[in-house]
Amino acid sequence: MMKSTNSSLSGRGSTIADTQQVMDLDRAHVWHPYSAFNADLPAYPVVSANGVRIKLADGRELIDGMSSWWCAIHGYNHPVMNQALEDQLKKMAHVMFGGLTHAPAVELAEQLVALTPTPLQSVFFADSGSVSVEVAMKMAIQFWNTKGRPTKQRFLTIRNGYHGDTFGAMSVCDPVNGMHSLFNASLTQQYFVASPTCNVGDPCTDNDIAPLEQQLQDKQEQIAAVILEPIVQGAGGLRFYSADYLCRVRALCDHYDVLLILDEIATGFGRTGRLFACEHAQISPDIMCVGKALTGGYLSLAATLATLEVSTTISNGKPGVFMHGPTFMANPLACAAGLASLELLQTTPWQSAVSQIAQQLEKGLDSCRQYACVTNVRVLGAIGVVELVKPVDMAHIQPMLVEAGVWVRPFGRLLYLMPPYIVQPPDLQQLIAAVTDVVIHLETSLT
User: Fold this and answer.
1) What residues contact 92, with CB distance under 8 A and at least 6 apart?
2) pLDDT tens string 192-210
């Protein structure tokens, strides 16, 4: 029996006219990410977004410093992106990918192969970043099983990593400090070593790499792959590390006959100043995951790319197919958005835009270093991070940022900025000023 409702939502094209009704219904029924149901933390109702601005129902406009969790790199309501979706919608919104194919998916796969490191030739589309990690892990296990080495079922990674919220992905997130420690007893137990302490631009010493090398030496017959976020660890702490470390990991994986999976979901498509973060190290993985900015933030889409050795080995062994197939795999609308986003990247000077953002972030956030409540300030590409001594009180700080006219979403001890690449200096300065004001406020509260 259907539950009765007093909501005015009924019939095609119905709307909720009253903002308060939106908020009441949201509080009554909607469970937001990383939030308690019926939480006291505010959720701000959005009515539109354009460029780098998010417009709230009360008329306020917020400069977006988050790129909507790092994906809206071209900003909102972009005419090229909009036109691509309108054109595709006239043809088809979706068609199953089992036994069928279509031009947007084929063209997007061709583009991804052309843009990523040369050895990556096979593209498997997925629904989201987390699913692309699941796909990558399954590929690695099935690859070794086909090769007659079925004991290679586990994964090695570094601490402070984040690879997604599904069960396989959770198993390679930090088991102690990560967001998923609650589920440890249910997860496959993987192998972890300390995060590298060698910073961007520094050499990787023998001591830096020794823990990972020791695990590979001891567990090579159990380890299917090393999985890493290259150069920048994302939601596990936004830590940056040396490209030289990544080079040495690649060499060790080759030496010990272990695959290398690089999770470029957060770092891909220009965020670090290179199209893909692995380019800082000039290495190529055996398997690569991409997502987030792939569609410019318009629709959920991800992809797992693999070398021909991986894809043909899996395909030529038992059962002769790769055992995965999402319902919305290679959705035509999402693929059209992906093609438009990649076109924008290749026809606009994103490199200079990211470089200018980096310079402004370096200069603007530098003053935060002087405060006792700050432990570190770091910038790489279009990523600016202020790491605090104590976790942020979201109930207090989030409204403060909104009042400053910006949308910045801190987490844990991190105040950070990842704006769209189209952000202009005055808007970026307002974002920097808002973050700095929060730091000053926190410093004052300590005294």
Assistant:
1) 102, 332
2) 999 999 999 999 999 999 9
Q: Which residues on neighbouring strands pair with residue 175, listed in sequence order?
A: none
Supply the range of the domain harboring residue 244. 81-347
Q: Residue 11 domain-assigned?
A: no
Q: For residue range 396-435, what is the model confidence (pLDDT) as tens digits?
A: 999 999 999 999 999 999 999 999 999 999 999 999 999 9
Mark whether 253 and 386 lie in a shared domain: no
Indicate whether 96 and 152 sit together in one domain: yes
Q: Do 244 and 279 reside in the same domain of the chain?
A: yes
At 443, phi and psi to the nearest 5? Answer: -65, -40
Indicate whether 14 belongs to any domain: no
pTM reported for the whole predicted model: 0.95
Asked if residue 265 and residue 409 are part of one domain, the reply reads no
In the chain, how many domains are there?
2
Q: Annotated catalytic sites, by residue? A: 34, 162, 263, 292
One-character DSSP codes across 167-212: HHHHHTS-TTTSTTGGGGGGSPP-EEEPPP-PPTTSPPPHHHHHHH
Cα(257)–Cα(144) distance, integer angstroms: 10
Domain boundary residue, one of 347, 374, 389: 347
Least confident span in 3-17, 57-71, 197-211, 274-288: 3-17
